[in-house]
Amino acid sequence: MTYGRKNLRLVYRPGRVYPLYLDPERDRDLIREVLQFYLDNEGRRFGDIDWEELRIVVGDDRLYNALRKTMSYFFKPLQVEGKVDPRILRLRVFQLVNTKFGGFVPQSSRGEAIELLKREVGVDGDLDKLLWIDDLDELPLTRVANPSIEDIARVYNLETVDTVCVNSSRISIEIGRYEKLLGNIARSIGRLSKLYGLVYDMRYHGNVFRAVIEGPRSLFRRPTVYGSRLSLLLLKIIDMLYSSRVWWRVESETHLARKTINIEILSNSLKPILATGGIEYEVKQVFDSSIEESIYRVLSSLGIDIRREEEPIALGQLLYLPDFKIYRNGKVYYLEVAGFWRKEYAEKKAYKLREVSKALNNLIVVADENLKPFLEKIGVPVIYYTVVQGKPVLPYKRIIDIIDGK
C-alpha cells in the first residue's frame, strides 16, 4: 500500500520534517467533495469519467494522485468475468484473420467475417465487446464499500505511513523509559525483526528507550529494499504506541529523489487516525522458523527445561532478546539460533553477538554451518548444524555438556 514517493506531501519546520496527513475535521469539506465525485460517477464507464474535474476539486496534483489511490479501495472498475479469457480470444481472432482473410477484412465483408470468427472461436454476443471486456476504460466504476469521511482519512493516512516506510532504509522508535507497555513493544520489535529478516538495536539513552530497525546493508542493493518490511513491523506495533501515555516518536531515514532526510512519521503529538484493522499486540508466531521449532522439540524430548524467552534482557544500556532460555541445575543459559543468513545480515548479527557476549557469559549459539566465517570470534560457544531433509542435524550432546559444566 503506497501511493508513490513523488506524491508524498511533507511539512518542513526548523529541526523537524513530518508528513501532511488528512484530518477528518480540518479536511472534511474536501473529503466530502471527493466522495461525492465518485458517487456521482458510479456506474459510468471508466474511460468516460472526467478525472480532470476531480483534479480541479482537489487543487493539488500530489494529493489528487494519492487520493485516487486511496479511493481505489472503495470504488473499483467492475471486472466482468466471461467464459473466454479476452487475451486468449484476441490472440485466436488475430490468428484467424491472418489465416482466413490474409490479415485484413474489408469493411464491406466485416459483418460476414465477424459471424465466421464467432463460429470458429465458439462465442456468442457482441464480439467487439468480448474482445475488450478487460479494457479498463470500458469497465463501469463500481462501489465496493460505503466509506465515511473518517474511513477515507484513515486509509489515506495509512498509505502515507506506508509510503514513507517503503522509501526508507531504517526507522527508529523512541519511548520514555517508564512506559508500562515497553516490555511488550521491545519483545514485538525483536520477534518481528527476526520474522522479517531485519536487524535491530535496542538501547537505553538516559530515560529514553531507542530501537533502531533496518535491513542488512549491501553495496549492490537499493537502500530501501527492506522498506516494505519496516512498514509491516511498524503497523504491527502501532496500536501499542498509540495507547502509550508517555512521550514517544517514530522517525525514518527516507530516501527521496535527490536527498536523504529524517522524517518524523508519528509521535505522541502526531497521531493521525489510521486504518490499522485492529492489529494485535502479540506476535502470533510461536517459532520464527522450523529450525527453531525442531531444536526446541529435540531438547525438550531430552529432558531439557527450555522455554521461549519472552522478555528482553538489559545488558547495561543494551537490550537483547535471545530465542530461548534454558534452566539447568539452578543455572540459566540463553540459546540463540542462527539460521541461514545473507552475508550482509550475518555481518550485522555477528557484530551484535560479539557485543552481547561481552556482557553475557551464559550464551550458547546454534548456527548453520555456512555461518562459520562470521561467528568464529564472537566469544561464546557456537554449535553448528547441517540441514538434512529440512531438519537440523547437530551434536545435541555438546549443548548438554555445556549446560552441565563439562
Describe this structure in words.
The structure is a single chain. The longest helix has 18 residues, at 149-166. The protein has helices at 28-40, 51-58, 61-71, 86-101, 110-121, 127-131, 149-166, 182-195, 227-242, 290-301, 343-357, 372-375, 396-403; strands spanning 10-13, 16-19, 75-77, 141-143, 168-176, 199-205, 208-214, 248-255, 260-267, 305-308, 313-315, 318-320, 324-328, 331-338, 363-368, 382-388, 391-393. Mean pLDDT is 84; it is low at 278-288. The chain is extended and about 95 Å long. Among the domains are: 86-133; 167-285, Alpha-Beta Plaits, CATH 3.30.70; 290-403, Trna Endonuclease, Chain: A, domain 1. Helix 3 (61-71) packs across helix 7 (149-166) and helix 7 (149-166) packs across helix 9. It is α+β, with helices and mostly antiparallel strands. It contains 13 helices and 17 strands. The strands form four sheets. It has a seven-stranded antiparallel sheet. It has a six-stranded mixed sheet with strand order 10-13-14-15-16-17, covered by helices on one side. It has a two-stranded antiparallel ribbon with strand order 1-2. It comes from Ignisphaera aggregans. InterPro entries: Bax1.
